Amino acid sequence: MDGTQPHPKKHRSNFNRFFVRGLGIVLPTVLTIWLVVLAYGFVDSRIATPINAGVRTLAIHVSSWPKASEQDYAEASRNLPPALQTRWDVLDDDLRRARGDAYTRAVQANEMRNWLAQDPEGERLARRLAMRRLWGSVSIGNWQVLDLIGLVVAIVLIYIAGLLLGSFIGRRFYHRGEELINRVPLVRRVYPAMKQITDFFFNDKTDRAQFSRVVAVEYPRKGLWSVGLVTGTTMRLIQERAGSECLTVFVPSSPTPFTGYVITVPIHDTIDLPISIEDALKFAVSGGVLVPPNQQIKGHSRSGEDAALIGEKTP
User: Phi and psi for 89 in degrees, rounded to 5?
Assistant: First the structure.
């Protein structure tokens, strides 16, 4: 061979490199879309759908809209609930005996429609069918546009709940409810962890464990540096034994920064880092890949694409 033929190992190396690069570029977008679709599906099926059912039922009971058509009464007559069917059977027998041969199927169907229109329960049954038909009349493909009502109502209710719980009385009721939940044998083992996760993602930034600033500490031993979040001062006895002013620092774990370790260190053993709380959390979540821009070492910047190519330098 003259040495000009491409080496199979080189082809494999190039394929692996570009494949990993493609994953690094495509996966964040794909996973984000997947999570959004998953969240929408959960909210739509578990929250919006029951709300939409409640909106339809409320509209039927408190208003005369929508009006049922003959088609709706005809469809309702074919699927009567047991109680309504029993009442119609009694009336149907009376009409059959009274009219004899003149009581044809067409006459029976007409009498049944008239009876349903005069019966409050029968009218509501027909109007439910009319509402269902009206609800599905505006659609884009298989998606019913009026289903947005449930999503909008859910957003409004969540906003109102947040508004009420922000008041003093609302917080008292909320804490009392949490106390009751924490007394339930099985739920009390799951609820605190779920609340910790939701508090981390949805609470205001100022409420996230009241973190004040970011520091670097030598933890878990001298020579190994960890990024931590200052939560405040420490216990009086610890500070007295240490002989100097101390800080309480929360060291988040990776990739789940809502868990970690709480340590107490003397102030002179910490280094203040000029980065935000959000940057520190991103650093922890990414396993150190997402270095804050103002702390990147020149010539060693690691963007999302660079992170996907970590294995490129390996032979």
Answer: -60, -40
